[in-house]
Amino acid sequence: DAEITQSPRHKITETGRQVTLACHQTWNHNNMFWYRQDLGHGLRLIHYSYGVQDTNKGEVSDGYSVSRSNTEDLPLTLESAASSQTSVYFCASSESTGFGYTFGSGTRLTVV
Amino acid sequence: GQNIDQPTEMTATEGAIVQINCTYQTSGFNGLFWYQQHAGEAPTFLSYNVLDGLEEKGRFSSFLSRSKGYSYLLLKELQMKDSASYLCAVRGATSGTYKYIFGTGTRLKVLA
After folding, report:
1. Do the chains contact at B42 and A104, CB–CB below 8 Å?
2. Which member of A5, A90, A109, B88 lies 3.0 to 4.6 Å from B22 by CB, making a disulfide possible if both were Cys?
3. Strand-pair partners of B72
4. How far apart are CA B15 and CA A107, in angstroms?
5. Are A18 and A78 in contact (CB under 8 A)?
């Protein structure tokens, strides 16, 4: 069965460290997205991609980067982790028709 | 600006009907989505409206009025398992746009 997986599920890191969160989907979807979810803010878009070699900034992209070298993967990198980046991160994918997202299970990141 | 408003919390009794409202102001409109999210889990797709009117799907229905920037999700015959957050999301109308803006979600508690 097709799926979208995120790893790790939980991570604790120190301020200033570089961290990469993985997202892998086997739906063969062109569109992939990274959101963060915080109390009182809902889901906020960090970065997104509409295909290989395409990346775009979302509303809260500062301090984050992504790369899209193949259809299946969109890793999210925190260049220098800050306590404000403690959050739950969700990866999602969708078909080019844009009908609905399929979400990964999320990564809970704590920056200490 | 772009804004999506939902009530923060609602409480209802098992077996009852509950209506969760969503109002939006976005730059363009190309579809409204409702997602269900249980605590500690990923959001899952519930419904999609792009034209005015009511879409029914079992115990769940969703209504859209584009002229009023308004939608609601109707849950009938409430069950305990319906206790979750319900997220309203809007997709903008820019050509080739597949990204959504999410509301902060409505936390629904179903009481026995």
Report:
1. yes
2. B88
3. B21, B63
4. 34
5. yes
Percent of chain A with pLDDT over 70: 97
Hey, which residues does B20 pair with through a beta bridge? Answer: B73
The CA dihedral of B78, B80, B83, B87, to the nearest 10 degrees, is -40
**C-alpha to C-alpha distance for B96 and B98, rounded to whole angstroms:** 6
Q: Which of B42, B97, B103 sits opposite A103 (nearest CB)?
A: B42
List of residues 6+ apart from B42 with CB closer than 8 A: A90, A103, A104, A105, A106
Partners of B2 on chain A (C-beta within 8 Å) are none
Q: Closest partner residue to B91 among A48, A98, A102, by Cβ?
A: A98
What are residue B27's phi and psi, to 5 degrees?
-85, 90
CB contact under 8 A, A40 and B104: yes
Q: Which residues in chain B are closer than 8 Å to A35, comparing Cβ atoms?
A: 102
Question: How close is the nearest chain B Cα to the Cα of A104, in Å?
Answer: 7
CA triple A106-B89-B59, angle to 5 deg:
90
**More confidently predicted of A1 and B9:** B9
**Residue A86 CA, distance from chain mean position:** 14
Residues A3-15: b if buried by 16+ CB within 10 A, e if exposed: ebebeeeebebee
Query: How far is Cα A68 from Cα A93, in angstroms, rounded to an integer?
Result: 13
Nearest residue to A94 (alpha-carbon basis) of B89, B71, B38: B89
Chain A residue at shortest CA distance from B105? A42
DSSP-assigned letter for residue A103: E
